[in-house]
Specification:
- This protein is an alpha+beta fold and about 300 residues long.
- The chain folds into 3 domains: about 100 residues, Beta Complex (RNA Polymerase Alpha Subunit, Chain A, domain 2); about 90 residues, RNA Polymerase Alpha Subunit, Chain A, domain 2, CATH 2.170.120.40; about 80 residues, RNA Polymerase Alpha Subunit, Chain A, domain 2.
- It is built from 6 helices and 22 strands.
- A hairpin with a 6-residue loop joins strand 19 and strand 20.
């Protein structure tokens, strides 16, 4: 009997504690709080139009509601799609778009108190394109006794899209600065085209191929009778000249191992795939790092392709 009475008392205490915790949690989570939620904006433009001025990329909603839903709403990734074809039925170039609180889906009990900004200014302009030349831009400097030669960009020009008024004033585009010190030991690299404004875009990719040669301003080594190799596919090649002479600028470290220099460089004559008969072919020198070309003699040879 005493045991039953004791268990009953403990049960009542446990129930009281449970109800207290439940009521505390309910009151806490039912408490209304204010918080901010940033929502990204995505615009659908009319086909022949562009922004003449970039509109806001996001808006902030000031929301009030039960604490229980705050984390779910705050951490949720939301975006609002603004179709400017519908919003601009009168085909104006300057107008405003209203952000409505109902555009953001919220749980029951949550309300939007304020939106910043509530009205989005839109400024449109007709789209235009123009083909402009690309200009090389450099930073830094090459090591002493080295110079840049035969610098070329492919493509040499690009087609740019943008607002008509801005495209009309655009005469050229430059590359991102190319660090001259990083060019040693290479013959080509991809460089990024620098757009002058965020409103511009390119019809092709935003990169160009930069080809060049690093040449020595003076030579400290001359190598003679270097065999010429012919780059071709199963053709009979005949040439009276089969060797070439090169003048090189070689680092002190490589010079100490001079016996390996001649075997580490190659001279190629690249034969065009469909060529026949006698043609003139330029010679190309392939050099290892720390060796730079000043001069090759001859620069090209006559070959007879059969």
């Amino acid at each position: 009997m005493k045991m039953r009475t004791r268990m009953k008392k403990h049960s009542l205490k446990f129930l009281s504690v449970f109800l207290s915790v439940f009521l505390w949690a309910y009151v806490l989570n039912s408490e209304k709080v204010r918080f901010e939620k940033t929502v990204s904006l995505e615009y659908i433009l009319p086909e022949d139009m562009m922004f003449a001025q970039k509109p806001p990329a996001e808006v902030t909603f000031l929301i009030e509601g039960p604490r229980a839903f705050v984390r779910t709403v705050a951490e949720r990734e939301d975006r609002l799609v603004i179709d400017l074809n519908r919003a601009n039925s009168k085909k104006k170039l300057a107008f405003q778009v209203d952000i409505n609180p109902s555009q953001l889906s919220l749980p029951f009990g949550m309300v939007v108190e304020r939106i910043i900004p509530r009205k989005i200014p839109i400024l449109l302009e007709r789209k235009a394109s123009k083909i402009v030349p690309l200009k090389l831009r450099f930073s830094g400097k090459l090591p002493d006794n080295l110079s840049l030669a035969n610098a070329q960009l492919k493509p040499a020009e690009v087609e740019v899209y943008g607002p008509r008024s801005m495209i009309g004033r655009l005469n050229e585009l430059a590359t991102r600065p190319i660090d001259l010190e990083s060019l040693v030991g290479q013959e080509s690299m991809l460089v990024e085209v620098a757009l002058k404004d965020d409103l511009f875009s390119l019809t092709s990719g935003g990169e160009a191929t930069f080809t060049y040669q690093i040449k020595a301003a003076s030579a400290n080594l001359t190598l003679k009778n270097i065999p010429i190799k012919f780059l071709t596919r199963s053709k009979t090649i005949d040439s009276k000249i089969k060797t070439a002479t090169v003048k090189l600028l070689v680092s002190d470290k490589v010079m100490r191992n001079r016996s390996n220099i001649s075997s580490s460089l190659q001279i190629w004559a690249d034969i065009p795939q469909d060529a026949m008969g006698k043609i003139e072919v330029p010679l190309k020198v392939v050099l290892p790092p720390s060796i730079h070309l000043l001069e090759i003699s001859p620069e090209s040879i006559i070959v007879d392709i059969k």
